[in-house]
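Quick one, tokens below:
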């Protein structure tokens, strides 16, 4: 099976492996393969990628909650998919390029969608989040972990490396040594440990996880629209800027806010108190 055949077979799968719930200006996207802890099979990944592309193109949406069907968030890359890639590599027809295309276009396509959209993404990690599934959570703007969450840095134990932006995201969150410890040691973290390390923003009781995620959606909805549209890309770029570059970006961006009705109304409201 080559890359194009893999895509064709995955698109032909009739199972509904990703569900989308629209709630006004927000949506809940749920990975839903209960037989496999929401492992990222080819069909599930394509359905997730398609759902996120459609949602991020919706001008009426402001926030998206990404979660998994209980009892897990996502077990990461599907083992059967990995085995099929081994077969292609052994045949020698496409070599490693099939794996490269899938990792770049599908797994990488999901994280690029999350990071590059101006909409807010809230990861509601309800159970194990492993490998690429963990990468999807780390790419989100807010990470909420339930008290049943498990952060599983599974790459090195199965002979793989951190991928899909995980090395960049984690070293900036918790530093080099902590990140090395996580991957080399392979220890699973609870939701509470993830929050203590700064990997998750907060840990909440499992039954309150979606409620808390939707509260974040409420906060996003209360923001002036331009504030989110301008702040997310600014913050996403700041980690790779010098202090002078970040300062200059803010200096150019801020005057635009003075021209908005939302800012002027906020100033009038403050002065009238």
């Amino acid at each position: 099976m080559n890359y194009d055949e893999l895509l064709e077979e995955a698109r032909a799968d009739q199972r509904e492996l990703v569900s989308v719930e629209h709630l006004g200006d927000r949506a809940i996207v749920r990975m839903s393969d209960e037989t496999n802890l929401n492992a990222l099979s080819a069909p599930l990944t394509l359905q997730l990628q398609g759902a996120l592309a459609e949602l991020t193109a919706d001008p009426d949406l402001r926030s998206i909650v990404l979660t998994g069907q209980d009892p897990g968030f996502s077990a990461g890359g599907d083992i059967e998919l990995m085995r099929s890639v081994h077969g292609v590599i052994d045949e020698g027809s496409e070599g490693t390029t099939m794996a490269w295309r899938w990792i770049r276009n599908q797994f990488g396509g999901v994280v690029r969608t999350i990071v590059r959209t101006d909409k807010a993404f809230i990861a509601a990690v309800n159970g194990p989040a492993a490998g690429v599934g963990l990468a999807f959570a780390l790419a989100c703007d807010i990470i909420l972990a339930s008290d049943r969450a498990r952060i599983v840095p599974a790459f090195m134990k199965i002979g793989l490396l951190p991928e899909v932006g995980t090395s960049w995201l984690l070293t900036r969150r918790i530093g080099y040594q902590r990140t090395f410890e996580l991957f080399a040691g392979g220890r699973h973290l609870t939701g509470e440990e993830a929050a203590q390390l700064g990997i998750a923003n907060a840990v909440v009781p499992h039954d309150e996880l979606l409620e808390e995620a939707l509260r974040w959606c409420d906060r996003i909805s209360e923001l002036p629209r331009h504030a989110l549209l301008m702040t997310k890309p600014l913050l996403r770029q700041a980690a790779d800027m010098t202090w002078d570059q970040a300062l200059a970006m803010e200096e150019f961006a801020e005057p635009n806010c003075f021209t908005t009705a939302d800012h002027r109304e906020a100033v009038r409201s403050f002065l009238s108190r």
